[in-house]
Each structure stands twice: as C-alpha cells, then as structure tokens.
Amino acid sequence: MTEGKRVYRSTLRAEQARRTRAAVLDAAGHCFLERGYAATTMKDVAAAAGVSVPTVFAQGGKAALLLACVDRVLVGDDEEVPLLARELFVRLAEAPDKQGKLAALRDIAADRGPAAVPMLRAFETAAAADPDLRDVWTDYESRRYADMRALTVMFGPWLRPGLDVDTATDIWWATFGLETTDRLLRDRGWPAERFADWFADAVDRLLLR
To answer: Which sequence spans correspond to the domains of the chain?
Structure first.
C-alpha cells in the first residue's frame, strides 16, 4: 500500500513538473517573440506563466529557456525524441521511391516551417547581439547541416548525375535556409501549404533527376 502511494505521488509530481515547465516555456517563447530576447526578463516570463521568478529559474537561465523553445518548435513537442526519429522523418526515410519521399518532405515543410521560423529568427537575432549565444548558434547551424546531409543521403539514389551527397547537401543547406523560408512565409505572406508545395518541387528540380 505504501509503495502504491509512493508511485502515485511520484507520478503526480512528475506530471506537475511537466506542466510547470511547459507553462514556463510557453511564456518564454511568447516573450521572446513579442519583446525580443534581449528585452525579455525572467520576471516577464514569470508574469506571463503565472509562476514565481524562482520557478522560472528552476527551468534554467534565459539562454537555456531560449534553446528549449527552439528545440520545441523544431520537433513540435516536449518529448525527448531526436528529430530524425520523428514520424514524418521516419516516413521519409522508409518511403521506397522518390515521389513518396518528396511527399513526406512536403508534409515536413508544411508542419514545421511556419512554426519554427519565427523562433529561429529570434534565436539568430539574439546570437548576433549576445556573445554567450554565438557559439550556440554556430553549433545549431552545424547540427542543421548534419540533418540536411542525412536527408540528402535519403535521396541519394535520385541525385542528379555528377552531384555527390556533399555538394548536394551544401546546395540544400544554403538554398533552403532560414532566410529563404522567412522571406516567403513572413515577408511575402505565403500560406504554409503553398510554401510546402514549392519546397518539395524546388528540391526535386534543383537536386534530383
């Protein structure tokens, strides 16, 4: 009986902790987008989340909150599952032909592009002004390149003649980066579906046979 109570209480505490962290990250993300990283204080985040300032600090410093917000928008939730192990990426990896892979890629672009770009832009802007974040941004870009290479490898059998994986990855990384996505979605006001259609078609035309 005692053990049962302990398990129950432990589960309850874990759920409360998860909800608190989610509320803090929701608030931090809102503040970073609305005020900018530099202008956001931990007090602002606490007020937006409806918790105390120490509770916010318990989730990490301001830079840690920003990085957690970035990770959230890239994968869509708080689960500790690597990006390439997510359902849409697994679908892309397992698709047996080019059209199936392009369809999965299109769905990834529609699902994550509009959600991720504003927070990534906030991250980039913060890193340009904050020396403590510059190396973190550089590391993020390195990880993004690695993810792009993994995607390129998945399209390996259909790469254009004379185009190797490294060169194709360089083109993918440079052409379909944050600036291009942000300009189309935010500056030109493209809907997510239109952007996703263009993205898959552009990858096909530029890199594949």
So the answer is: 1-76, 81-209
Residue 194 in tokens = 């239109």
- Residue among 114, 95, 96 at smallest CA distance from 104: 95
Q: How far apart are the C-alpha atoms of 16 and 191, rounded to whole Å? A: 36
Radius of gyration of the chain (CA): 20
Cα–Cα dist 33/182, whole Å: 14
SS3 209: coil
Between CA 116 and CA 181 the distance in angstroms is 10
Q: What is the pTM of this model?
A: 0.86
Looking at domain 1-76, its CATH architecture is Orthogonal Bundle (1.10)
Q: Which residues of the chain have pLDDT under 50?
A: none
Could you report the per-residue pLDDT of 42-68, keeping only the tens digit for each?
Answer: 999 999 999 999 999 999 999 999 999
Could you give the CA distance from residue 65 to residue 124 in angstroms, rounded to a whole number?
15
Chain Cα centroid distance, residue 2:
42
Q: How far, in Å, CA of 64 to CA of 183, rounded? A: 27
pLDDT at position 2 is 55
- Helical ranges in the chain per DSSP H: 2-35, 42-49, 53-57, 62-75, 87-94, 98-129, 131-154, 165-175, 178-182, 192-207
End-to-end CA distance of the chain: 65
Helix residue ranges per DSSP H, 41-97: 42-49, 53-57, 62-75, 87-94
* Three-state DSSP state, 119: helix
